[in-house]
Q: What sequence folds into this?
C-alpha cells in the first residue's frame, strides 16, 4: 500500500513538473554590465553565463538600484524598495516590512519547493529571515557582505555551520544538492552569489591567471581605476562563471534543461572603476554605469535563442514576469511597480510596449530613465542614445522633457516619502546613502516557529568606548571593550514569554578569564563570567589583496553559554556589559544568540 502511494505521489510530481517549469535565478553581487565577455569585455571569459544569453534572451537596457539590498527587495516583491521599508544596507535598514509578500511566497503556494543559497540581505531575524519570506531552505548569510570567503561560517536554517572551501563553490554545491534532491517536483532555486563583492579574495588558481595580466580595456574614469582590484574582480567573475556552468550542467544531466527557466542578473554597478563600455558611474551612483545590469533569460522552446529585448526594464519587473512565465498565481495584492515582461519574451514584438519611466535612488539622490533619456541626480538631462556616456547635458535643448522628468522625480519622491534634498539638486545630506545609524524598528526575539534569534554586532549599537572592528557594519564585531561603562546594546521586542538560552560568540585573551558579565532586558538580569580564553589570531592571509578601507579583518570566534533567563513579552534594550574589567579588554564580540526553550 505504501509503495503504491509513493508511486502515485511520484507520478503526480512528474506530471506537475511537466506543466510547471522549474526556475533558477542567478544573481551576481557587485558585478557591472561590463564584466562579461558577452557584453564585450575581452579581458575575461564568461562562456557559461554568456550561454544563457545565447540560448535565450538578453535585455538591451535593464536597470537595478545602485546598491545591493534595494535591488534584492525589488526583485522579490516587484515594488520599489522605499515602499518596503528598505532604505539602507546594514544595521537593520535593509529589512523588508514583514507584511510584504515575495515571489517565493507565490511559488511556494503554487506547490514549488523553494531554496536560497547565498547572500540574502533583506533581514536576519524572524519575520525578516528567508524562511519567513517563502523559502523552504536557506544556506548562506543574511547580511550585506561576508568577511570570510574560505572555510566560512555559514547559516543553515538558523544554525551556524563551518564550511570547507571557497564560499561560491560551497554554496553552489548546496544548490546542486537541492536541485538533485527535488528533480521530480517543481522547484525555485535562488542562488545569489557572493562575488565579485569585496573582500578581494579569489581562489589561487583564478588569481594566477589574472595577477600579471595587462588591462587592455580600462574604466571610463581611468585615473580612478585600481588595476589589481579589477584583476581580482574579474578572477572572481570567472570563478562564478564556472559555478554557473556547474548548475547548467546539472540541469542537463537531470534532463531538466528544457523544463527550467534560468535567469541571470547583477544587483548594481561594478564595485570599483573598471571597464563599463564607456558608461558613467559605478556602484552607489544613480548614473547609467551604477544601475545598468545584464539580464539574461533562457527557456528552451519558449524563449527564442539569441533574441534581444530593447524596451527598458528593471528588477521590479522580474517577480511578475517569472510568475507569468510559470503560470503561478501571485500571493499578495499590493500594487506592483513592475511590469510582466513575458509578452516581450514570448513574441519578441516591441511595438505595442507602452512608454515608461524607471527610477533609481540611493539616499536622496534620485535619477529617472526613459527609453531614450536619463535625468540625473543633479537635474541634468542626457540623451542616452546619442550620448551613452552622459558627457553633454541637453536640458537647454529639450526643456519640456527636462521639466517633465523633474516633475516626475518630485512626484515619485513624495510618493516614496523621500525627503527633499538640501544644498542643491540631489546633492544634499544623504545623497551618498543613509549612513550606518541603527534602524529604530526593533529586532524580534522568540517566535516559536523560529526559536533561535541571532543578534550580530552589525545590528547592535556599541556604547561607551566600545566600537566596531571597522566602519562597514555588516561583517564587523565589537572591539575595544575596556571599561565597565561599555556595553553592547540591541533594540529588541520579545514576542513570546519563556526561558531563553543565551550564548555569546567571542574571542578573548587569557587575562580576561573570570571577567563577570551581565545580560539585561527590561529589569531581568542574567549574570555569568568568562571561563575560558580563546585568543584567535586575525586572518589576513585569506585575502588576495588588502581589504578595502573600512572592512573588518576577520578572526575565529568561540561560542560560550552565558546561562538561561526568563523573558517576558515587551520592547526594550537588550544589553550586555561587564561590571568589572579584569584584563586589558573583556572580549571581541561577534554575536549574542537567544534560543527559546
A:
Amino acid at each position: 500500500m505504501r509503495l503504491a502511494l509513493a508511486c502515485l505521489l511520484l507520478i503526480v510530481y512528474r506530471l506537475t513538473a511537466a506543466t510547471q517549469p522549474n526556475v533558477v535565478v542567478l544573481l551576481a553581487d557587485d558585478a557591472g554590465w561590463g564584466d562579461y565577455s558577452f557584453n564585450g569585455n575581452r579581458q575575461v571569459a564568461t562562456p557559461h553565463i554568456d550561454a544563457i544569453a545565447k540560448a535565450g534572451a538578453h535585455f538591451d537596457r535593464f536597470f537595478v538600484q545602485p546598491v545591493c539590498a534595494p535591488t534584492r527587495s525589488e526583485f522579490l516583491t516587484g515594488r520599489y524598495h522605499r515602499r518596503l521599508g528598505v532604505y539602507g544596507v546594514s544595521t537593520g535598514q535593509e529589512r523588508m516590512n514583514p507584511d510584504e509578500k515575495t515571489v517565493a511566497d507565490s511559488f511556494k503556494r503554487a506547490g514549488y519547493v523553494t531554496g536560497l543559497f547565498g547572500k540574502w540581505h533583506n533581514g536576519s531575524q524572524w519575520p525578516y529571515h528567508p524562511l519567513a519570506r517563502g523559502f523552504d531552505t536557506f544556506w548562506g548569510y543574511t547580511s550585506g557582505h561576508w568577511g570570510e570567503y574560505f572555510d566560512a561560517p555559514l547559516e543553515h536554517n538558523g544554525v551556524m555551520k563551518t564550511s570547507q572551501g571557497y564560499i561560491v563553490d560551497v554554496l553552489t554545491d548546496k544548490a546542486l544538492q537541492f536541485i538533485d534532491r527535488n528533480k521530480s517536483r517543481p522547484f525555485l532555486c535562488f542562488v545569489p552569489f557572493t562575488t565579485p563583492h569585496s573582500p578581494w579574495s579569489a581562489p589561487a588558481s583564478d588569481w594566477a591567471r589574472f595577477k600579471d595580466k595587462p588591462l587592455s580595456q580600462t574604466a571610463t574614469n581611468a585615473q580612478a581605476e585600481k588595476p589589481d582590484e579589477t584583476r581580482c574582480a574579474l578572477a572572481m567573475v570567472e570563478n562564478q562563471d564556472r559555478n554557473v556552468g556547474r548548475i547548467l550542467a546539472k540541469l542537463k544531466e537531470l534532463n531538466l534543461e528544457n523544463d527550467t527557466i534560468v535567469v541571470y542578473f547583477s544587483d548594481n554597478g561594478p564595485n570599483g572603476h573598471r571597464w563599463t563600455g564607456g558608461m558613467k558611474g559605478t556602484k552607489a551612483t544613480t548614473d547609467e554605469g551604477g544601475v545598468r545590469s545584464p539580464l539574461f533569460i533562457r527557456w528552451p522552446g519558449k524563449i527564442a535563442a539569441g533574441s534581444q529585448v530593447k524596451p527598458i526594464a528593471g528588477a521590479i519587473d522580474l517577480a511578475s514576469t517569472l510568475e507569468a512565465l510559470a503560470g503561478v498565481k501571485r500571493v499578495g495584492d499590493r500594487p506592483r511597480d513592475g511590469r510582466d515582461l513575458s509578452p516581450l519574451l514570448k513574441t519578441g514584438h516591441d511595438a505595442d510596449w507602452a512608454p515608461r519611466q524607471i527610477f533609481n535612488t540611493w539616499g536622496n539622490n534620485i535619477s529617472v530613465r526613459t527609453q531614450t533619456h536619463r535625468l540625473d541626480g543633479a537635474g541634468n538631462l542626457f540623451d542616452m542614445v546619442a550620448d551613452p556616456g552622459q558627457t553633454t547635458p541637453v536640458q537647454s535643448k529639450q526643456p519640456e522633457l527636462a521639466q517633465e522628468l523633474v516633475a516626475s522625480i518630485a512626484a515619485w519622491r513624495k510618493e516614496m516619502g523621500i525627503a527633499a534634498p538640501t544644498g542643491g539638486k540631489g546633492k544634499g545630506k544623504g545623497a551618498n546613502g543613509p549612513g550606518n545609524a541603527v534602524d529604530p524598528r526593533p529586532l524580534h526575539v522568540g517566535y516559536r516557529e523560529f526559536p533561535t534569534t541571532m543578534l550580530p554586532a552589525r545590528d547592535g549599537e556599541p556604547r561607551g568606548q566600545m566600537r566596531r572592528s571597522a566602519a562597514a557594519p555588516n561583517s564587523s564585531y565589537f572591539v575595544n571593550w575596556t571599561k565597565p561603562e561599555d556595553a553592547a546594546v540591541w533594540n529588541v521586542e520579545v514576542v513570546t514569554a519563556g526561558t531563553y538560552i543565551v550564548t555569546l560568540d567571542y574571542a578573548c585573551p587569557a587575562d580576561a578569564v573570570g571577567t563577570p558579565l551581565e545580560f539585561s532586558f527590561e529589569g531581568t538580569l542574567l549574570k555569568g563570567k568568562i571561563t575560558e580564553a580563546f585568543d584567535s589570531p586575525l586572518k589576513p592571509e585569506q585575502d588576495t589583496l588588502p581589504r578595502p578601507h573600512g572592512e573588518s579583518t576577520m578572526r575565529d570566534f568561540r561560542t560560550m553559554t552565558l546561562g538561561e533567563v526568563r523573558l517576558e513579552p515587551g520592547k526594550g534594550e537588550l544589553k550586555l556589559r561587564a561590571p568589572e574589567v579584569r584584563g586589558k579588554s573583556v572580549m571581541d564580540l561577534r554575536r549574542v544568540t537567544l534560543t527559546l526553550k
Summary: The two ends are 39 Å apart (CA to CA).
